[in-house]
């Protein structure tokens, strides 16, 4: 087979799997390498042998989208069962419903407001002296007032980002983070669900094509691209360049796994909004598969902290300093020939799974169309800055 028809993909997560399959279907020979000992990237799921619970190894993943093509795509590989994410939070010795909704407001203030009354009440709580909010804290105080801010936003945000909400930009809280009805479904999207047999099984099916070879436990080096017509790289953008311009800032997560005989907390996700509780949330994985029954339980206490060189990068920070550094890395990446940077790490963005799949499909199409028209492939599908 000619070099032109051979493709190297770095990363066997959703980005790599979807691009790999789309190209394999069009006659390309696709080699995929991943440094981990499993496929699936951060969506990896595995059934716990002792309890039978499907565990979301790198933190819980809920599929939600308005993109009908992406929904049809994933349903072509596995069956999705209904799942609505309903999050609770413990604050001030009580349990409330999230996102902050009419139930939360009524419970918190000891009221029986109807929607219009709650709206008017919150307008009175809002700090109107803040006319041009610059920070997350100012934005929250302007939207919901001090009491709700301190109970539901301040501590959680501080733990998640590792800094005071006074140091974060107002843009993080773009819209009023409150609902004036009893809708406690975390996501608004039309299609929501969970793959019945887990994400890794779904991704294994995406990868199941005779023209795709997956090699695990293999870390990509830049020289590995020789002998291939194109490389699609879903590893960390700064890692590709051996961090020569420094490391892009990430938050990492530590999961403290524990098991329980029975139902530990009665729901999938319990947040902890107070700063003196060191973890941000506890997730109980059997509740992510509500159609299954297990007597035992697997839970994760989740801690957020700054990402060090040997940690797994989870959330890109993307504040002013990181964006400047990102621009420099993007300029370097654009000088590379026959390499496209994809996915959450390759483009240094937080991407939900549906967006990841959409971009992977579009990337594969752009590549195939470019080949047909003899056009060079872009380094990025769209600018990550
Ligand atoms: C805590 C958390 C919770 C999330 N929850 C949700 C959710 O509920 N719903 C949702 O839609 N999305 C969620 N996401 C987002 C979801 O994880 C991403 O959309 C998805 O993982 C992106 O897939 P990817 O293939 O781009 O990246 P990844 O899944 O990170 O895959 C990249 C792969 O590349 C490999 N790799 C990296 N560098 C190299 C190298 N040098 N050589 C070889 N291999 C390499 C890695 O091992 C990895 O397997 C969540 C993300 C996080 C962090």
UniProtKB/TrEMBL annotation:
Matches recorded under SUPFAM superfamilies: FAD-linked reductases, C-terminal domain (SSF54373), Nucleotide-binding domain (SSF51971)
InterPro entries found in the cross-reference section: UDP-GALP_mutase (IPR004379), UDP-GalPyranose_mutase_C (IPR015899)
EC top class named in words: isomerase
Pfam families: GLF, NAD_binding_8
Domain UDP-galactopyranose mutase C-terminal: 151-350
Domain of life: Bacteria
GO cellular component terms attached to this protein's record: cytosol
A single MF term (Gene Ontology): flavin adenine dinucleotide binding
Keywords tagged on the record: FAD, Flavoprotein, Isomerase
Required co-factors: FAD
EC number per UniProt: 5.4.99.9
Similarity comment: Belongs to the UDP-galactopyranose/dTDP-fucopyranose mutase family.
Protein name (database record): UDP-galactopyranose mutase
Organism the protein comes from: Pseudorhizobium flavum
